[in-house]
Specification:
Shape: globular
Order of helices and strands: EHEEHEHEEH
Distance between the termini: 34 Å
Strand order of the largest sheet: 1-6-5-4-2-3
Bound molecules: tetrahydrodeoxyuridine
Strand content: 15-25%
Low-confidence stretches: none
Length: 157
């Protein structure tokens, strides 16, 4: 038996103005997407935005259902849309914010799996920007947020 360790590197910005302009723009797009959320049940609006390596930005938001579990998280809905409509493109960065923003908006477990799946498929890391009201946490890869992601090792792509 051996004990192994996983190191988790992340950047913390106490103020969004410390970030490069591209990141501030992406966080602003995610923030704007919060206004399109349909969240009458939780009252918690989430916005997500991706930037592709060619500079295109797309965004989405969480959508809830009267049959509560049928709703979809902002980042998962967005990534499924990307897979269906921009399958050839590579995502460089994904920003997530919420309203209200009691703290930085970190993705739920199911979304972490889907972000990690997307990263694996595109064979390039996805930077994840988790915005708070002023602060931001950034990780360089989805793997950081979900080591030991589930894999169907025998599945063909
Ligand atoms: N939500 C997201 O959109 N993303 C997450 O990663 C976690 C939670 C949404 C789902 C639900 O509409 C609301 O936030 C409260 O859980």
């Amino acid at each position: 038996m051996e004990t192994r360790h996983i190191d988790l590197d992340y950047s913390y910005y106490s103020d969004r103005c410390e970030l490069p302009e591209e990141d501030r723009i992406l966080l602003a797009a995610a923030e704007k997407a919060c206004t399109t959320a349909y969240a009458p049940y939780s009252g918690f609006r989430v916005g997500a935005a991706v930037r592709f390596d060619d500079g295109e930005v797309l965004s989405s938001s969480n959508q809830e259902s009267e049959a509560f579990p049928s709703g979809i998280c902002a980042e998962r809905g967005l990534l499924y849309f990307v897979q269906a409509n921009r399958p050839q493109k590579k995502i460089q960065s994904l920003a997530i914010v919420s309203s209200p923003a009691p703290t930085e908006c970190t993705p739920c477990g199911a979304c972490r799996q889907v972000i990690a799946d997307t990263e694996q498929r595109q064979k390039a890391p996805i930077r994840i920007l988790m915005g708070g009201e002023r602060s931001t946490i950034i990780v360089k890869s989805a793997q950081t947020l979900l080591p030991f992601r589930f894999t169907l090792t025998s599945a063909k792509e």
